[in-house]
Amino acid sequence: MIAPAETPRLRRHLSTSAWLLVLTLVLLGFGFVASRPATPPFHGPPTGGALQAERAIDALTHPGPEPTALSLLPADFTRVTGVTPGAAAAPDGTVRAVHVDGGCSTPWGDDNTKWDYGVACKAHDLGYDLLRYADKVGQPLPPSVRASLDSRLSTDMHAMCHIEPAGSPRTCQLVASVFTAGLNVNSWHQRWGPPVGDPIGPMLAGVAVIGCLLVFRLRGWLHTRRTRPARPLVTTTAPGPASPWVTLGVAGLVLLILGESVLALARWAGADEAWLWPFTWLAQLAPVFFFAGGRANAAGWRHIRESGGGYRQYVAHRASWLLRPALVFVVVALVVPLALELLGIPQGTNAAIVGIALHPLWLLAVYLLTVAATPFMLALHRRAATVTTAGLLALVVLTALGSGWFGSDLLRSASALGLALLAQQIAFGRLPTRHRALLVSGAVAALAGLVALTTVGGADPNLLGTPGASPALAAPTLPLLLLGAAQLCVLGLFARPLARAAELRWLGAPVRFALRAPMSLYLGFLAAMLLVVALVYLPPDPAAALNWLTGPKTLMALGLLAVPALIVFWWFERHFDGYVPLHDSRPTGWRAHAATALGTGYATIGLFGFALTRFGGDTGGTVLGLPLDPIQNLIQLLLGVFLLHAVRTGVSAATSTWVVTALACVPPLLEVASGYGPGPLTVAVYGPTALFAVGTAAGNLISAKTVAQTT
């Protein structure tokens, strides 16, 4: 008798399970770190009621036979906090001032345990009430005060294991250690500031939506990776050189990043600023980057038109290439501050390093706007090239002057965008390479104007990392305008040698690798930069310096960047050749129009939001009126990536596309409903988007049902 064949079991790819596990852990870690509040401002030594609160906390952390802290409480403590304190005898013989209704808070409720940590926890709760009091009267106490309260509670819990071990002293010590770890993690999450309630609901909803957007995006990437035909082991022809304009753009961006980093290290090492400004003129290559990007954008638009595509396909295709490396800055914004915190780098240096690390994100955000504007600016160039260029020049000058007169950040940003568009507009034409005398005269005149502006005109000669300048350019706009004019004249003079250099294979290889693996390269560069910064703050003693370099905190700080670099390269960029092919589909219909507009808008807001928020560095600010929040900014960025990818792959009309879009609008609306953040503009942006997405999805379902009933 033949046994019936067994149905084969369906097995999920091990890599898929690994992806789900890694994605879950990363999302939980991201949500925990991203929900940290801003660092409490320092208002100087406390006075009045805040000073009394600090003295009462000091008494709580040094208990004795009397509840001394009760007599030191501010007179208006109960009125401000609503807490009526009391006294309780502790098992160690001391008498503590306590929050009578307090207890040992755990995720499952108050649990004083069988070793009776209750009195110590209630005293700790009263200390937290005093921290909240100081915050409410406008003088939050320094982090060391909360740390002293946590240390006192940890000491008391461990002491109970000797006073009342309840037959299990080792278990008591373990539980006390677990409680201490939870206490320290919670205090670290709140930056050792006043204990506050966290918006758990909106945070969890945001993390869930981020996971949904990532799963939808990575699902297509995994499918493409698994179905891609195997590469031949031996290639018959060597790869050709990269495009001259791509080579110029990559070289300009790399030299700009390296130059800014080296100059920052020189400043931290104590170099005189009077000797550094000439090097900023050499390293500031933002105009060259936007000029080369303009040539690449024009070539991309012509290629799309020749292949039968239109604006929607062009934006979706170019943005897919741009936003791929943009996601790495989520990792940068997340782990760089953590790594610097582990290394104990001073706060001022910390902020400067994060600003340098996120500078390419500003350039990328502005460049995305120039990409979207390319077809329209090209049309203006064909019809009125001189008038358009003159108009952009006037826009740059007027907005730069206006930003100085009125102190407007909006005008400062507008001048930066205008300069990027001006460099791109010049790239649409041809530099007068045959008129060398004209180019030499232009370069000399631009440099003379720059010297006059920075000497007689009083402008800052530092053109990289200038305080108060537009973050996208890291320099004042008017001096950079003159420097850019000189740079473009020099490019015209050396156009032929530069074109020949771009054809060299030894130069093309690193350019192609930079296009292939920009994310892992940048993370590796930041890890190296972090190590150099750490060397600046090494202890003078060689033995202590070696111990510090090989210590767990230092290794963990470097691993926060090195490990993601390896993961990104191995899972993403190892199989990527730096070229995003055109998709066969042609996005058509009003849904594709809507997806293109929404995707570009949300991606741009997400990029600028991430550049501004810095994970708690500027919490409370806004970008275009929308609140700065890492979770919401990541949702905006991922939603933009998702919609533009849907347009590129021809699924912008799918019901699932608009269901996911509607879900992405839930967390910010839930945050407004919970009372966090500004509401009117958030509702005005996300409300119509959600209604449009729901209406589109419902329309698709109704149409499908009607077709099914009529067939």
Automatic annotation (TrEMBL):
The keyword Ubl conjugation does not apply. Keywords: Membrane, Transmembrane, Transmembrane helix. InterPro entries: PLipase_A2_dom_sf. Coiled coil: none annotated. The chain crosses the membrane at residues 18-35, 200-218, 245-269, 275-293, 321-340, 360-380, 387-407, 413-431, 438-458, 478-499, 520-539, 554-572, 592-613, 633-651, 658-677, 683-702. The keyword Metal-binding does not apply. This is Phospholipase.
